[in-house]
Specification:
Oligomer: heterodimer
Strand order of the largest sheet of chain B: 6-7-8-3-9-10
Number of strands of chain A: 0
Helix content of chain A: over 70%
Distance between the termini of chain B: 25 Å
Number of domains of chain A: 1
Helix content of chain B: 25-40%
Structural class of chain B: alpha/beta
CATH topology of the largest domain in chain B: Rossmann fold
Largest interface: A-B, 28 and 32 residues
CATH class of chain A: Mainly Alpha
CATH superfamily of the largest domain in chain B: P-loop containing nucleotide triphosphate hydrolases
Number of helices of chain A: 27
Order of helices and strands of chain A: HHHHHHHHHHHHHHHHHHHHHHHHHHH
CATH architecture of chain A: Orthogonal Bundle
CATH class of the largest domain in chain B: Alpha Beta
Largest sheet of chain B: 6 strands, mixed
Structural class of chain A: mainly alpha
CATH superfamily of chain A: MetI-like
Number of domains of chain B: 2
Order of helices and strands of chain B: EEEHEEEHHHEHEEE
Radius of gyration of chain A: 24 Å
Shape of chain B: globular
Largest sheet of chain A: none
Radius of gyration of chain B: 17 Å
């Protein structure tokens, strides 16, 4: 029973993932590919750009998130902030990048609102050479993710109660709320945010779809250079792409190691600050409120501009609103990519949730660290690395350009997220409920279905919604494995974003946004406990 | 230094939780308040400490050293608190926990006070240890010393011995009351264990929202 229960997760997810990573090893010993990669004129500037956009966007997102948590936690705005974060989380990165681009471009809504004039201003606001647009979009899009991770820590049962009690103790020791947050709440919070921050940094430094839409072009980020190389049919160029993937992964590892060392070196200074004594530092409520409203406005405006553009066949500058609206762009949205994306998302999510539940039900919790560790590796590694390896694995098996191959490519990140999201609530389930049900003559299956499933309904639905959203947004692995035979929503959206048909691009970006939003809304509504 | 309550009352949903009560706790005195669970003992302490929030409505005045505490936030009231749990901060060492609430000043002086406090708690040499490596009794002693080195003008004890075993309770009671009396700090303690009441200390009962002398 135990082995059988582990089989789906092991065979469909863990084994392909490990083999994909192993496929990178031959590339590491290809001398010619190394030579070609190191001689590439864009390697070093592109690498620097990638690291800078990843690091700066992570720092900005972290600063904003901590300001919002520190300023607004335990205030009337707290619940609203959680709702905004959940909505922001549901918007796919690519769709936000497209909306953000339309917002800040010279003829975009911001220029129409604040600049005006007869002609658009001369701004290099999209695909600027310094990567500012990409960095800002990444930072804004990651705020909801970091906030959600922070909420999870601050509202987790006993931990939350303990943190509240500790903050009260700090107040009795002379610390004002701002000081208590800085010295009592922040240290454990930062500890819990380590992995989310690694994921945000790696994602920001290696993202392809957002960089193709908003990033610089001369040079582009290293992820884009790699992306073009991996899509090249010429084996030598392809090998160079894999070597560059290894270089990028190594550079990210070095940066993360340097951060860890810096943190250790600064330990004394940190502890001096923590123990400097009581301070009357207040919480930055007003600043947090302004920043929170600004972030919310940017997320909302990016969506609004997509809606307006998708309905506006013509929208000349400087008009604030289109003169006429029609649905021609929506009529031109081909249904095939939408159906394929939905089918893949539903299949990958169903398999991921079912195999994860089967794992938790049949495996000892001591074994969790292996699968959770692998899931963290899958998320913390650049997607280009796992996708590049996956392509090399599936190519000789004849699975590239097949629906099954595409399904496996979606399942890799989906199962990783589902595992991480479900592990805590599933393992924290109080087994005495099952014992009580069994004592009342319920069979094992009946006790699971009638007691455990309803009690774990909310985390199961949230995990499914997250898995679904992750699958809908998949671009890099899907594009590589699809081999030009299939097209999903993100593939269409990226292709359109580089063209001139703005209404159709906006329509596709919205088509990409609606399914995850519906999934999160459904999870929130259906997961609401009936007994409260 | 005296803690004074003047016609303090607390209501919830229009119903009285604590009917108007007046009380003076003298310097070095420990007054014990007993009552059933849910009778409002801890709520009264929260009101005095300044962190009572909705849904309660309150009236009356609390003053310390003759100064009204009305409208003051908890951190400026100079009222130390002990809870059922020691609530030592897990990310700080024992010494760092003591430094946490100690008034600012030259670091060598503050470190000397830490050493003195540790010696008083018979925990010299434990400063660099993380709290979880200490026994329950040791942690409780550090928790009291942490509150005392913050130089409070009053102490509120919320069932501080509740989670300790019988032997430990006895020794910790003496430790706590001796230190509070030695510093001449007025102290209000809530408990539902008669054994916690200090000898010669005043005992108040909270029943049906009314505080009476036992």
């Amino acid at each position: 029973m135990n082995r059988l229960g582990a089989a789906p997760l092991a065979l469909l997810w863990a084994l392909p993932l490990l083999l994909s990573l192993a496929m990178l090893l031959p590339a590491a010993s290809d001398g010619a590919a190394w030579h070609m990669a190191l001689a590439h004129p864009q390697l070093w500037p592109a690498l620097a750009l990638s690291l800078a956009t990843g690091a700066v966007s992570t720092l900005i997102a972290l600063a904003i998130s901590l300001l919002l948590i520190g300023g607004l936690s335990r205030s009337a705005m707290w619940n609203r902030l959680q709702a905004v974060a959940a909505t922001g989380l549901a918007i796919p990165h690519l769709a936000f990048a497209i909306g953000f681009g339309f917002l800040i471009m010279p003829s975009g809504l911001i220029a129409r609102l604040f600049v005006g004039g007869d002609a658009p201003p001369y701004w290099v606001s999209v695909q600027d050479p310094w990567g500012v647009a990409l960095t800002l979009a990444l930072a804004l899009k990651e705020v909801p993710f970091l906030l959600t991770a922070g909420f999870a820590v601050l509202s987790r049962g006993d931990a939350a109660a303990r943190l509240r009690a500790e903050a009260r103790t700090a107040a009795s020791l002379g610390h004002a709320p701002g000081s208590a947050f800085l010295r009592v709440v922040l240290p454990p919070l930062m500890k819990e945010l380590r992995w989310p921050l690694v994921i945000v940094f790696v994602y920001g430094a290696t993202v392809v779809d957002m960089a193709l839409v908003l990033g610089p072009t001369q040079p582009p980020t290293l992820a884009v250079v790699i992306w073009h190389a991996l899509n090249n049919a010429e084996p030598m160029t392809n090998g160079m792409g894999l070597v560059m993937t290894l270089l990028l992964t190594g550079a990210l590892a070095i940066v993360l190691a340097a951060v860890a060392l810096l943190k250790r070196a600064g330990r004394n200074a940190t502890h001096r600050m923590l123990t400097a004594g009581p301070s009357l530092l207040q919480r930055p409520r007003a600043t947090a409120l302004v920043i929170g409203l600004a972030v919310t406005a940017m997320l909302a405006l990016a969506l609004l501009v997509l809606v307006l553009l998708s309905l506006a066949p013509r929208w000349p500058y400087p008009a604030l609103l289109p003169a006429a609206v029609d649905a021609s762009a929506w009529m031109a949205v081909s249904p095939a990519p939408l159906w394929l994306s939905l089918l893949l998302a539903l299949a990958a999510t169903a398999v991921a949730v079912a195999s994860t539940v089967l794992w938790f039900e049949t495996q000892d919790r001591n074994r969790d660290r292996w699968v959770i560790g692998l899931a963290l590796v899958a998320l913390a590694l650049p997607q280009l690395a796992s996708a590049g390896g996956q392509y090399r694995l599936l190519l000789p098996l004849g699975l590239t350009g097949t629906l099954f191959g595409l399904f496996l490519a979606h399942l890799t990140p989906v199962a990783a997220y589902v595992l991480i999201v479900l592990a805590g609530p599933y393992r924290a389930f109080d087994g005495r409920y099952i014992a009580a049900a069994r004592a009342l003559a319920a069979s094992q299956l009946s006790a699971w279905a009638r007691v455990k499933l309803p009690l774990l309904k909310a985390p199961l639905l949230i995990a499914a919604a997250i898995g679904f959203a992750v699958s809908i947004a998949q671009f890099v692995p899907a594009q590589l494995i699809a081999a030009g035979r299939f097209s999903t929503l993100p593939m269409e959206a990226v292709t359109l974003a580089s063209g001139g048909n703005r209404p159709l691009t906006a329509a596709f970006a919205l088509a990409l946004t609606v399914p995850p939003l519906v999934a999160f809304l459904a999870a929130a509504l259906l997961g609401r406990p009936r007994w409260r | 230094m005296a803690l004074r309550l003047e016609t303090v009352s607390i209501r919830i949903g229009g119903q009285p939780l604590i009917a108007p009560v007046s009380l003076i706790v003298a310097p070095g005195e420990t007054v014990t308040l007993m009552g059933a669970s849910g009778s409002g003992k801890s709520t009264l302490l929260s009101f005095i400490a300044g962190d009572l929030t909705s849904p309660f409505t309150t009236s009356g005045n609390v003053s310390l050293d003759g100064n009204s505490l009305d409208g003051l936030p908890p951190e400026t009231r100079r009222i130390g608190r002990l809870f059922q749990d020691d609530l030592l901060f897990p990310h700080l060492t024992v010494a760092e926990n003591l430094l946490f609430g100690m008034p600012r000043g030259p670091r060598p002086e503050r470190l000397a006070k830490v050493e003195a406090a540790l010696a008083e708690a018979e925990l010299s040499g434990f400063g660099d240890r993380p709290p979880h490596t200490l026994s329950g009794g040791q942690r409780a002693r550090v928790s009291l010393m942490r509150a005392l080195v913050a130089e409070p003008h009053a102490m509120l004890l919320d069932e501080p011995f509740n989670k300790l075993d019988a032997e430990l309770r006895q020794s910790l009671r003496s430790f706590v009351f001796e230190h509070i009396a030695a510093r001449r700090i007025p102290c209000l303690m809530v408990t539902h264990d008669m054994a916690d009441v200090p000898a010669n200390g005043r005992l108040l009962l909270l029943k049906h929202a009314t505080v009476t002398h036992a």
